[in-house]
Amino acid sequence: MKRTFFLAFTLLWSLLLTATALPQGEAFGPVRSAIRGSNSHDLAQYFAPTVELSFDGDKQSYSATQAEFVMKDFFAKHSPASFDFIHYGGSNEGTPYAVGKYAGKDGAYRMFVKMKQAGGALRIATIDFTKE
C-alpha cells in the first residue's frame, strides 16, 4: 500500500514539475496566432475578465467583451503585415510577459503583453501598443 501511494505521488509530482517547466513563450503561442490573423475573437478567448489596453500611452481598462471590440477596431485600422514576439520574460512573482514587434500597413508598433492567473489559467491582463 505504501509503495503504491509513493509511486502515485511520485508520478503526480513529476507531471506537475513538467507542466510548470514549459517554455515561457509556449503560453503566448495562441495569442501570437490570433494577432497574426488579426482575429479579435480568438484573441479574446485569452482575456482576463478585465483587460488594460494602451495605445501610445492612452490606457483604459475594459471588460473582456469590450476589449474584443476595441481590438477588432484596431485590427481593422492597422491590419498586421507581420507580427512576432521578440522577448519573453517573467516578473519575480512569476507573471509572464512578452514583447513583440507589430508591423502594420501604416507603421510599426512595439507591443507588450502581460498575463496573469485568472480562473485557474493564464489570461491576458495587459496589451500595450507603442508606435515606433
Automatic annotation (TrEMBL):
<keyword id="KW-0732">Signal</keyword>
<protein>
    <submittedName>
        <fullName>DUF4783 domain-containing protein</fullName>
    </submittedName>
</protein>
<dbReference type="Pfam" id="PF16022">
    <property type="entry name" value="DUF4783"/>
</dbReference>
<feature type="signal peptide">
    <location>
        <begin position="1"/>
        <end position="21"/>
    </location>
</feature>
<dbReference type="InterPro" id="IPR031977">
    <property type="entry name" value="DUF4783"/>
</dbReference>
